[in-house]
Amino acid sequence: MSDQGLPVQAGFGESRPGEARPDAAGRRARLRQYQQQLLERMQAARISGGTRLHQLGVMIGTERFLIDLTQTGEIVPLAPVCAVPLTQPWYLGLSNIRGNLVGIIDYARYLDAGATAMAPDSRMLTFAQGLGFNCAILVNRVLGLRQASDMQVVGERLVDADNNEWLVLDLAELVQDPRFLHVAAAA
């Protein structure tokens, strides 16, 4: 067992001595199991009666962001994205996530900070259903659960014990921003 209560498994490309290399279906099953365990941990953190509020740490572009767990849905691997013509450059298009069409947003581009590079660690983070938007943001990496209460406020940023700077991304506020609501390209 790991220190976070999750079973320790061989990596996806690794096999234990004496085992055959796992097939693709087995890897997908383990990935689903891991995602389910992560989702359960995130839900437990949301309903925790403690005074400490957990946020999900993500890397978007070159910045670290904290997102309130109550505003997040699923963390899903990159899926094919179908471009939508005549939309803003930060609106990457639509993706089928578990049978639902979800708009994919490059938040780094939205902030005019360049495009988010897609890499093996990249994920799509869906918005919570309560926000009323079938959206996901593209993230370079998921950095795990963090606690803003353990960080120092320096201007508009938070600084953790390792001197990493964090910005807070409020998805509920984002979905009310008129600029975010108008994905059509300017004529």
Report on this structure.
By secondary structure, the protein is α+β, with helices and mostly antiparallel strands. It has 2 domains: 1-47, no CATH class; 53-181, CheA-289, Domain 4 (OB fold (Dihydrolipoamide Acetyltransferase, E2P), Beta Barrel). It contains 4 helices and 11 strands, in the order αβββββαββββββαα. The protein has a 6-stranded mixed sheet, covered by helices on one side. It has a 5-stranded mixed sheet with strand order 3-6-7-5-4. A hairpin with a 5-residue loop joins strand 10 and strand 11.
Q: What's the helix and strand layout?
A:
Elements: H1 24-47, E1 54-60, E2 63-68, E3 72-77, E4 91-97, E5 100-105, H2 107-110, E6 123-127, E7 135-139, E8 141-147, E9 152-154, E10 157-159, E11 165-168, H3 171-174, H4 178-181
Parallel strand pairs: 2-11, 5-7
Antiparallel strand pairs: 1-2, 1-8, 3-6, 4-5, 6-7, 9-10, 10-11
